[in-house]
């Protein structure tokens, strides 16, 4: 046998399965989760309670089985999430046995920062961007898993799976490391941190398909139901609690709506829909003509806005 | 020409499955069996690469109306197509790139057809972005190499083809683009294909399919175009849907799994988690743990969804073994019948990715599979000109340089040649100071001598020699600027030690540069090699039982660390002779600073070559506050306190092998 030649595995003549794209995506994500746990000092998983988080959580449970995932969950809370999201958060932590940490930016809490009086940009910056940095520093987490995907937004298409942040959590597009094969360089100096995106290569359809196949629990808001909404700036905003000030002439009306993405309820547009099952949601998504993030008010501030947010430390 | 965007069902548009509307459950069932192809597109902005990708996304209905509206607005504002849609804007994400109209980094795009899901790595085509292209190519099964029909095969086409071959991509599409601008002329296409064939054979690309197309007009992309009736091959999309996947090729190889993580939820369970790099594994299979060579059999393939009766390349699993064998992160579990070779010296191909050049002799961290080792480039055999494929001698390797190099690891590992199994033969190099990924490489084969050199375990040991001499050996490593006073203090220390009857040796520029290192100059690469040799000589002398003093500027932290790591704990004293540059220059005992400032002496530390001060030296000599005599006395006292000046019955071997 010549040196370096890797002999075939078997002389038997059997057909082996070609892995499906979901199997390969799952294997890649599990590999990334394990690699971080093997190399990081204090990893944490950011849990936003949305569908991408749900998939990431499910993958983490698989990656370390029969061990429990060796890291806590962190929810960076804005106090303005949908009520159904808070219910789901408590349920998942209870059922999966994860340690759940919740962080609310005390400064934003003291000032009563909200999207109505302060605008979406400041609201997002203080609650989410600053809140996240505070929480990571407070607990000394050096690696944070996030559920971002490359297909969500143009500037994400270039994001590494391991994204480096300098000591001030800043993202410098020029200082990112090359990522080859399945080799991730997780070494860093004290004070530096890494954001890791295990589902980078999943698309919105992949996520829905996987949720469907694996029976992953998701917040009911993703399914269509009769909900009280008002139309504002071309978006359907759900009146989720009595903190929402109504403008003159606005009366909430009951419409059959669902959400393609979940965030703070005043900033998250609903779509009119009757899709009340996963196949129906997927069907609607495949036939739809608008992209997933269109319901996010924060993306439309200006061109390149996501990139600017990222440089400041937003996920 | 204008793109027809008003009707998403233009003749050439790739129609979504009718099943979505009629029977979503059937559609989902079909969608679950799709395979995944990753491919790379190579070409420059001018080749219409972004337009082609935009077209693929558009024709497979991956662009939504809101994105299209944004795209139309952007096209009018900053587009390069006048009032028409500029598809390149879909793909060039970063603001800076939009402004410059070029793609700087690897962007990953996603689209799907009814048969396959695709991940496209879009990389820039210019030579200064070679590293980005190599990065994108590392995970690809196929490469689409774009050629402008009006320009034919260019230098960059050859470069891209060479890199594709280097990275082990087995399938190539030669996309002859902009056929609309040459009137869909068959003779133009045929000439380009003939021109390319010879070159493809030269770089070892066996499977090449040439397709005439137009990204702008959509010819031969989603479906066959009636404008090229003379072309009998498949449309691009059809070929992408049917080409062989590398994952399937790897299934036929012997079983390999680098162990990522040892899974121990309790005392009764010990599993080895990892992603299978090649082959198939089943319970009952005999396996070997490399590099230790211990053997066992597979007991279970554990997943959260229940145990499996087989697992294949590409799957992430947890394996348990029938025996309690020692196995940890970084080891490779392999088929016992066809285990990987184990070696610590290799011939490799390296692609350099950092602004700082690669220097032979400098220790880098190297990550291969789940193992990180320390490695040195022992020799750059030759650098390869990526444009002409010419080989030339090189002493260091610049950014985007590619070279065949010999590498020496600090320990033996199990491996396969990269061309056989990428996951057990591909590696990255990491800078020890900055932690940046500075290079990538591929193992070609193990060097014979690495299997043959076995350290002779001698009966006469360092400890026995040293106790005969009545001392404990150590290396006192003086570092500092030229003229700081290193040699002066080192000489005084040696005199004091001789006076106490100790056995010493002083290595400095006078007795090393004129003999052993006569072949070395003062470039960064030569400085690194100079210090590497001094470190090795000091180690041998320490082995002889001596107290060794070295007086070299030794400007780089990484080489001083290398010298330190050659020795055992407690054997290395770094002494920083700390004299400010202005003071050393004012003394200028040898008149060297004056020459350096005048430009007649190049690469002089402190003037046009850097000095990296030690971060945590054992001893700091502040020459502003003490005389050389006081400094020497302080160092000797430290040795005395540390028990180095008397025999040490407890002395145990450190370093050594």
UniProtKB/TrEMBL annotation, chain A:
<dbReference type="InterPro" id="IPR011784">
    <property type="entry name" value="SO4_adenylTrfase_ssu"/>
</dbReference>
<dbReference type="GO" id="GO:0070814">
    <property type="term" value="P:hydrogen sulfide biosynthetic process"/>
</dbReference>
<comment type="similarity">
    <text>Belongs to the PAPS reductase family. CysD subfamily.</text>
</comment>
<dbReference type="InterPro" id="IPR050128">
    <property type="entry name" value="Sulfate_adenylyltrnsfr_sub2"/>
</dbReference>
<keyword id="KW-0548">Nucleotidyltransferase</keyword>
<protein>
    <recommendedName>
        <fullName>Sulfate adenylyltransferase subunit 2</fullName>
        <ecNumber>2.7.7.4</ecNumber>
    </recommendedName>
</protein>
<dbReference type="GO" id="GO:0004781">
    <property type="term" value="F:sulfate adenylyltransferase (ATP) activity"/>
</dbReference>
<keyword id="KW-0547">Nucleotide-binding</keyword>
<dbReference type="InterPro" id="IPR002500">
    <property type="entry name" value="PAPS_reduct_dom"/>
</dbReference>
<comment type="function">
    <text>With CysN forms the ATP sulfurylase (ATPS) that catalyzes the adenylation of sulfate producing adenosine 5'-phosphosulfate (APS) and diphosphate, the first enzymatic step in sulfur assimilation pathway. APS synthesis involves the formation of a high-energy phosphoric-sulfuric acid anhydride bond driven by GTP hydrolysis by CysN coupled to ATP hydrolysis by CysD.</text>
</comment>
<keyword id="KW-0808">Transferase</keyword>
<feature type="domain" description="Phosphoadenosine phosphosulphate reductase">
    <location>
        <begin position="43"/>
        <end position="269"/>
    </location>
</feature>
<comment type="subunit">
    <text>Heterodimer composed of CysD, the smaller subunit, and CysN.</text>
</comment>
<comment type="pathway">
    <text>Sulfur metabolism; hydrogen sulfide biosynthesis; sulfite from sulfate: step 1/3.</text>
</comment>
<dbReference type="Pfam" id="PF01507">
    <property type="entry name" value="PAPS_reduct"/>
</dbReference>
<dbReference type="InterPro" id="IPR014729">
    <property type="entry name" value="Rossmann-like_a/b/a_fold"/>
</dbReference>
<dbReference type="GO" id="GO:0005524">
    <property type="term" value="F:ATP binding"/>
</dbReference>
<dbReference type="GO" id="GO:0000103">
    <property type="term" value="P:sulfate assimilation"/>
</dbReference>
<keyword id="KW-0067">ATP-binding</keyword>
TrEMBL record, chain B:
<dbReference type="InterPro" id="IPR000795">
    <property type="entry name" value="T_Tr_GTP-bd_dom"/>
</dbReference>
<dbReference type="GO" id="GO:0005524">
    <property type="term" value="F:ATP binding"/>
</dbReference>
<comment type="subunit">
    <text>Heterodimer composed of CysD, the smaller subunit, and CysN.</text>
</comment>
<dbReference type="Pfam" id="PF03144">
    <property type="entry name" value="GTP_EFTU_D2"/>
</dbReference>
<keyword id="KW-0511">Multifunctional enzyme</keyword>
<dbReference type="InterPro" id="IPR041757">
    <property type="entry name" value="CysN_GTP-bd"/>
</dbReference>
<dbReference type="InterPro" id="IPR050100">
    <property type="entry name" value="TRAFAC_GTPase_members"/>
</dbReference>
<protein>
    <recommendedName>
        <fullName>Multifunctional fusion protein</fullName>
        <ecNumber>2.7.7.4</ecNumber>
        <ecNumber>2.7.1.25</ecNumber>
    </recommendedName>
</protein>
<comment type="subunit">
    <text>Sulfate-activating enzymes, NodP and NodQ, may be physically associated.</text>
</comment>
<comment type="function">
    <text>APS kinase catalyzes the synthesis of activated sulfate.</text>
</comment>
<keyword id="KW-0547">Nucleotide-binding</keyword>
<comment type="similarity">
    <text>Belongs to the TRAFAC class translation factor GTPase superfamily. Classic translation factor GTPase family. CysN/NodQ subfamily.</text>
</comment>
<dbReference type="GO" id="GO:0000103">
    <property type="term" value="P:sulfate assimilation"/>
</dbReference>
<dbReference type="InterPro" id="IPR044139">
    <property type="entry name" value="CysN_NoDQ_III"/>
</dbReference>
<keyword id="KW-0548">Nucleotidyltransferase</keyword>
<feature type="binding site">
    <location>
        <begin position="43"/>
        <end position="50"/>
    </location>
    <ligand>
        <name>GTP</name>
    </ligand>
</feature>
<dbReference type="InterPro" id="IPR027417">
    <property type="entry name" value="P-loop_NTPase"/>
</dbReference>
<feature type="binding site">
    <location>
        <begin position="177"/>
        <end position="180"/>
    </location>
    <ligand>
        <name>GTP</name>
    </ligand>
</feature>
<keyword id="KW-0418">Kinase</keyword>
<comment type="function">
    <text>Proposed to provide activated sulfate for transfer to Nod factor. ATP sulfurylase may be the GTPase, regulating ATP sulfurylase activity.</text>
</comment>
<dbReference type="InterPro" id="IPR009001">
    <property type="entry name" value="Transl_elong_EF1A/Init_IF2_C"/>
</dbReference>
<comment type="similarity">
    <text>In the C-terminal section; belongs to the APS kinase family.</text>
</comment>
């Amino acid at each position: 046998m010549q040196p370096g030649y890797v002999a075939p595995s078997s002389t038997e003549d059997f057909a082996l399965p070609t892995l499906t794209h979901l199997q390969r995506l799952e294997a890649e994500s599990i590999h990334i989760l394990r690699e971080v746990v093997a190399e990081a000092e204090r990893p944490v998983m950011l849990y936003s309670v949305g569908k991408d988080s749900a998939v990431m959580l499910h993958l983490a449970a698989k990656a370390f089985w029969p061990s429990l995932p060796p890291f806590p969950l962190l929810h960076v809370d804005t106090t303005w999430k949908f009520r159904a999201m808070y219910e789901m958060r408590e349920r998942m932590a209870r059922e999966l046995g994860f340690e759940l940490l919740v962080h609310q930016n005390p400064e934003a809490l003291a000032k009563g920062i909200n999207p109505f009086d302060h605008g979406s940009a400041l609201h997002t910056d203080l609650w989410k961007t600053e809140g996240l940095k505070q929480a990571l520093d407070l607990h000394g987490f050096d690696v944070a898993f996030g559920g971002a995907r490359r297909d969500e937004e143009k500037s994400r298409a270039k994001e590494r799976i391991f994204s480096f942040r300098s000591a001030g959590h800043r993202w410098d597009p020029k200082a990112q490391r090359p990522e080859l094969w399945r080799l991730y360089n997780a070494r860093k100096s004290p004070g530096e941190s890494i954001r890791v995106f295990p589902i980078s290569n999943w698309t919105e359809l992949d996520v829905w398909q996987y949720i469907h196949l694996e029976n992953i629990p998701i917040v009911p808001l993703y399914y269509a139901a009769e909900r009280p909404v008002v139309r504002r700036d071309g978006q359907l905003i759900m009146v989720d609690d009595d903190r929402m000030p109504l403008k003159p002439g606005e009366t909430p009306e009951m419409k059959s709506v669902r959400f393609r993405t979940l965030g703070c309820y005043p900033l998250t547009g609903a779509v009119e829909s009757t899709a009340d099952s996963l196949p129906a949601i997927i069907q609607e998504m495949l036939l739809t003509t608008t992209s997933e993030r269109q319901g996010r008010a924060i993306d439309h501030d200006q061109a390149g806005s996501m990139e600017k947010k990222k440089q400041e430390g937003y996920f | 020409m204008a793109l027809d965007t008003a009707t998403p069902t233009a003749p050439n548009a790739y129609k979504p499955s009718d099943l979505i509307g009629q029977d979503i459950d059937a559609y989902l069932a079909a969608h679950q069996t799709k395979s995944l192809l990753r491919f790379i597109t190579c070409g420059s902005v001018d080749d219409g690469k972004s337009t082609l990708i935009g077209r693929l996304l558009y024709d497979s209905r991956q662009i939504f109306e809101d994105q299209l509206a944004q795209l139309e607005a952007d096209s009018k504002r900053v587009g390069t197509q006048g009032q028409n849609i500029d598809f390149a804007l879909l793909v060039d994400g970063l603001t800076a790139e939009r402004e410059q109209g070029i793609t700087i980094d690897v962007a990953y795009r996603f689209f799907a057809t009814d048969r396959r899901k695709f991940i496209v790595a879009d990389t820039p085509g210019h030579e200064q972005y070679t590293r980005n292209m190599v990065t994108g190519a590392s995970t690809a099964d196929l490469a689409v190499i774009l050629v402008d029909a009006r320009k034919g095969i260019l230098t960059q086409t050859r470069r891209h083809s060479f890199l594709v071959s280097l990275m082990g991509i087995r399938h190539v599409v030669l996309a002859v683009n902009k056929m609309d601008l040459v009137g869909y002329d068959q003779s133009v296409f045929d000439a380009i294909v003939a021109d390319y064939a010879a070159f493809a054979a030269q770089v070892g690309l066996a499977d090449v399919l040439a397709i005439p197309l137009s990204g702008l007009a959509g010819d031969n992309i989603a479906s066959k175009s009636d404008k090229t009736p003379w072309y009998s091959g498949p449309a691009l999309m059809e070929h992408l849907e049917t080409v062989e996947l590398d994952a399937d090729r790897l299934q036929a190889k012997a079983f390999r799994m680098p162990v990522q993580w040892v899974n121990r939820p309790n005392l009764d369970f010990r599993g080895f988690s990892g992603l299978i790099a090649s082959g198939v594994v089943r319970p009952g299979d005999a396996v070997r743990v490399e590099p230790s060579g211990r053997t066992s059999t597979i007991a279970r393939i554990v997943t959260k969804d229940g145990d499996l009766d087989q697992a294949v390349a590409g799957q992430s699993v947890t394996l348990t073994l029938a025996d309690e064998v020692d196995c940890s992160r970084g080891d490779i579990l392999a088929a016992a019948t066809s285990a990987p070779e184990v070696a610590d010296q290799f011939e490799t191909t390296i692609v350099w990715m950092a602004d700082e050049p690669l220097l032979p002799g400098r220790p880098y961290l190297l990550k291969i599979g789940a193992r990180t080792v320390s490695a040195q480039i022992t020799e750059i055999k030759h650098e390869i000109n990526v444009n002409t494929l010419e080989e030339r001698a090189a002493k260091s390797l610049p950014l985007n340089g590619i070279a065949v190099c010999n590498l020496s690891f600090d320990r033996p590992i199990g491996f396969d040649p990269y061309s056989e199994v990428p996951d057990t033969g591909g590696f990255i190099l990491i800078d020890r100071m900055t932690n940046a990924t500075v290079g990538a490489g591929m193992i070609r084969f193990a060097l014979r001598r690495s299997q043959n050199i076995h350290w002779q375990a001698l009966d006469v040991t360092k400890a026995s020699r040293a106790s005969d001499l009545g001392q404990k050996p150590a290396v006192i490593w003086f570092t500092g600027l030229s003229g700081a006073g290193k040699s002066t203090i080192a000489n005084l220390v040696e005199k004091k030690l001789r006076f106490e009857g100790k056995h010493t040796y002083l290595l400095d520029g006078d007795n090393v540069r004129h003999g052993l290192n006569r072949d070395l100059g003062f470039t960064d690469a030569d400085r690194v090699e100079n210090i590497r040799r001094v470190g090795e000589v000091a180690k041998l002398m320490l082995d002889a039982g001596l107290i060794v003093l070295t007086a070299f500027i030794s400007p780089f932290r990484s080489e001083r660390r290398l010298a330190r790591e050659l020795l055992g704990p407690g054997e290395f004293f770094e002494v920083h002779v700390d004299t400010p540059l202005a003071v050393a220059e004012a003394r200028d005992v040898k008149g060297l600073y004056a020459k350096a400032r005048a430009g007649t002496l190049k690469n002089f530390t402190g003037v046009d070559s850097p000095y990296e001060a030690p971060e945590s030296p054992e001893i700091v000599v502040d020459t502003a506050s003490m005389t050389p005599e006081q400094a020497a006395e302080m160092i000797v006292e430290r040795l005395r306190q540390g028990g180095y000046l008397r025999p040490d019955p407890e002395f145990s071997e450190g370093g050594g092998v």
